[in-house]
Amino acid sequence: MDVDLKHIKDRIIAGLHGLEARQLAAVESVVRNMHRKIEFRPGGTRDLVSEAFRDEMSLFLVVHHALHERALNKENFEYVFKQCLIASGDPTARLNPNQKQAKFDVAGGGHRWSLKTESGDSMSRKTVKVEKLTEALWIRNSPTAEDCARNVREKVTPRLLDYDRIVVLRALRKEGMITYSLEEIPWSPLHTALMNDTRAEIFSKRVRGGKKAKSFGADYLKEGTQTRLFRMLLDTSVEKVRIWYALDECLHHGYWTLPASTSTNVSELSKSEAVELPPQRDHRPEETCQEELPF
After folding, report:
1. Looking at per-residue confidence, does 234 or 286 come out higher?
2. Residue 266 CB: number of other CB atoms within 10 A?
3. Rounded Cα distance, 286 and 46, in Å
4. pLDDT tens profile 162-180
5. In 3D, which of 65, 55, 124 has the Cα closest to residue 86?
6. Which segments show compositional bias classed as Basic and acidic residues (predicted)?
7. In what order do the strands lie in the sheet with 203-204?
8. Would you call 35 helix, strand, or coil by DSSP?
């Protein structure tokens, strides 16, 4: 695609006329942050993050953090993910217009995607946390382990048929930097475990400090082993199904690392400095590449 840079610059300059001071400050912040460098480290799974996907994600993260210090939330991530799929070659990628009919968030690239976000200053080194796999108004009316198992089989498991892949965007802030990690919870092992291993005897209420928990939980094991694949919590306080999935069993699509807030000095944004990898995974240094946005 041919780009007329002079025409674009002229339109930007013309568009500045008439803006209020606070609007100009916001524009200046975005422009200043376009000079920052963002570090990308590819994951072991390469079927999703193409070069176009990588660059589109980088662009949106830079723009977001020109105006916000908090990580992308789920709603923002859905839009960004859709745009990344479009940039990767699917112009028909779209947000789900009717989640009452089917619970996927984005359709594109030949798949229906369920998208989640996770953020915090101290994320687990071992599990990816999904705070809402699905809403579950039936939880408070499930006083026994038998009730829980039946409702998971009848109400939770069929929900997974509404989408094909589950992707979690994890954000970790450390020393002024924020790293986004794109992890995928494999759909088939999750669905198989729910189909085959949901039995009353795996549901119980844990006892901590001599007090029994209010909510039922269950550990699902990796097939043919005694290793936990994920833990499910039927959270009565918010009436949601939550899961903690083993990070080692997830598909890793890559990291993006950038300053979490806007610098006042363009030269500071352009420094190429080593950034410590967050605690999710190891990486091979030779896979690190420094990406500079083309603006």
Report:
1. 234
2. 13
3. 16
4. 999 999 999 998 888 899 9
5. 55
6. 270-287
7. 127-135, 240-246, 228-235, 216-221, 203-204
8. coil
Cβ count near 284 (within 10 Å)? 9
- Tens digits of residue pLDDT in 68-99: 889 999 999 999 999 999 999 999 999 999 88
Q: How far apart are CA 112 and CA 94, in angstroms?
A: 10
| The domain made up of 36-259 is a member of CATH 1.10.1660 | no
Which residue ranges make up each domain of the chain?
36-259
DSSP alpha helix (H) spans, the chain: 5-16, 21-33, 51-67, 74-87, 145-151, 187-197, 266-269
Tokens 């789900």 correspond to 96
Cβ partners under 8 Å of residue 99, min gap 6:
105
DSSP 163: -
- Beta-bridge partners for 291: 38
